[in-house]
Amino acid sequence: MKAAVLYSTVPSAPKAGAAPGTENYADARPLLVQDLEQPEPRAGELGVAISYSSLCHSDLSVVDGSRVRPLPMALGHEAVGRVVSVGEGVPDVSVGDHVVLVFVPSCGQCRACLAGRPALCHRAAEVNGSGDLLHGPALLRTPAGERINHHLGVSAFADFAVVARESVVVIDDDVPDTVAAMFGCAVLTGMGAVLNTAGVSPGQSVAVFGLGAVGLSAVMAARLAGAAGVIAIDPNQGKHQLARDAGATAVGTPEDAARLITEASGDGVDVAIEAVGSAGVIASCLELVTRGGAVVSVGLPHPSAQLTVPALQFAGAGKRLLGSYMGDAVPSRDIPKYLAYWREGRLPVDLLHTDTRPLSEINEGLDALASGQVVRRLFRA
After folding, report:
1. Which of 65, 118, 195, 207 has the least CB density, counted as fewest CB within 10 Å?
2. Distances from the Cα of 211 to the Cα of 143, 248, 274, 321, angstroms
3. Is the per-residue pLDDT at 313 higher than 70?
4. What is the DSSP letter of 133?
5. What sign does the CA torsion over 88, 92, 96, 97 have?
């Protein structure tokens, strides 16, 4: 099998809008595409031939070291493929099934799972952090025999992956792989932040900060939920038309945010979605929601980031700050539901797909994502 493996982090990255020739990852090449021995699935696991994998900021944050993970690690956590082998004890998935891979393989038995919140599965958090799989230790090995850790139970920058049964959702054959590839993280997280975590109702106003694939998915969800105003904010003006196409009613840079929100909803929006990964943006969002409004934090700030806000906003103005991991999703329920919206023409997920490249260009893809040139770049091994 072929997989992209990270052996050491590269801290710096080009800033948004960086000029050509200032590439960082294309030069440093932190991801090494290697031929590895292909493992067999154990009990409770599946072997999946990866059709397309998708590059996300969460991958980039592992490469630059802001999300600390055990190395070496085979990266990638958003993908689509076909089942090619089935381990013992998996009665409900067959060879040939079309599957979306998801990055939280819920155990079904922990406190969070029993409460109906599988995205917060305790066992999944443990094995995702250690680089293992839900049903056993890491299977991948370097050509020299050293352990390679799995990324979020998926390791999708590859042509094959062994994953837990709980890491896949079987989908219909008619869904194009270039669409399905983006449902396991971007769509699930952005849609879920609006529909599950915030529970946006018709007529409410929503502001989305950060127009990557997750933020744009949140814009689509807000429109789908019947929000009266959807304000989309990002410093990269190249993404503004995409936001309009996704359903935003007003679009601007961070400098425009307060004015646009005042024009659209008076004293503040009902819900603000923070999809940047910035403590400063979270604080700004709290200032821009109305009394009783909610801020949903979706982005992943650096672990050292601290949030300092006026405490009286909570009891004094009834404002809420809500964390949303994987959109508080139940993947087996939500992915089919969101695919139905896509079939009905109500969820223009195709807008997220910037282009497709061979896996050999994965490092160049890191530069393109870091500089804001792409929303979702897909890769084929």
Report:
1. 65
2. 39, 11, 10, 20
3. yes
4. B
5. negative
